[in-house]
Every structure is written in structure tokens, then in C-alpha cells.
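haha ok so turns out i had the wrong file open the whole time. this is the CORRECT one, sorry everyone. sequence first:
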Amino acid sequence: MVSLVKSMTGDHPARAAVVISNTPQAAGLQRAADLGVPTEVVDHRPFGKDRAAFEAVLDRTLKAYQVDLICTAGFMRILTAEFVLAWQGKMLNIHPSLLPKYKGLNTHARALEAGDQEAGCSVHLVTPELDGGPVLGQVRVPIKPGDTEQTLAARVLEQEHRLYPEVLRQYAQGHTTPMNFD
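then structure:
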């Protein structure tokens, strides 16, 4: 999130309207505030299993800030098809694998367990299928001998900070052709 916000200056076609978290104690809220970006919390817990009610408040909050493109980063809630379809083509996500490989969680462990030679990250459009939307950009990261989940995750994260801002810039300018940054 910090990399995205910092990238949206100068001739960048997008600006950060608000940073929203579903976790009141998320460190990103203070980081966003320090960067001068408004913040909101839409805590999912009071809604229990009523996802539609949570998403209705989330939707109203986004619209109150006149958001026209959502960039999820570290938002660990699976959104309903109804919410995703309402924002179709207007929601990006960063995922720590070379999609379509390793959708979901534990991506680094799964790449290491499979004996893969490379890992990486992908920015994709969000669709109702978990981590299944069209990939807009990827960066490959070699898996080195002796890598652990933590060392691999750290190298992938460095590339996420490079990839996501660039894909956002390109997408906000209307470019939808997938990009590779190897």
C-alpha cells in the first residue's frame, strides 16, 4: 500500500482517495495517514457471517470517497461474487505467486515443496474466482538453494513493491496487455 500511495504523484494518472482496512489495528492505517491519505475502518467482525452487510458498508465507504479503482493489498477477506461483479474491471490485487500457480495461501511454501526453480508475484484483475482473474503483470524471482519461506517471501515482496505501482499506472492509463518485468 505504501509503495502504491508513494507512486501516485506527478504525472501518475491515479491518486489515493482512501485506505480502508477491515482490521482496526492495521499498521497501514497509520502509514496512510502519515502520507496524507484519508483512512477508514470497516471491521468485518461485527457483521458475523453476514458478508453482504459487511460488503454493503464497504461499498458505501468506497463510493463516499468517489473511488473508481480498488487496489487490494493484504486484504485477507474473500469477497462475494456480487461485490466483485459490482466492481468488475475496477479492482486489482497483488498475489505472491506466478498465477495461475498457487492460488490462495502459503504460496512460498508450496513453491519450495514442489521444487520449483522460480517463484514471483502477479497483479491481476479481481474476479469471483479466487486469484483467477486476468493477469496484468508478473515478476519472476529465482528460488535459490537454501531458500526458506521467509527468504523467498522477502525477495518476492521487493518485486511486489516494484510491480504493483507500475501495473496500476499502466492500467489507469487504459493499458490491459499483460506485462512482464523480468
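The CA atoms of residues 28 and 96 lie 19 Å apart.
again sry for the mixup
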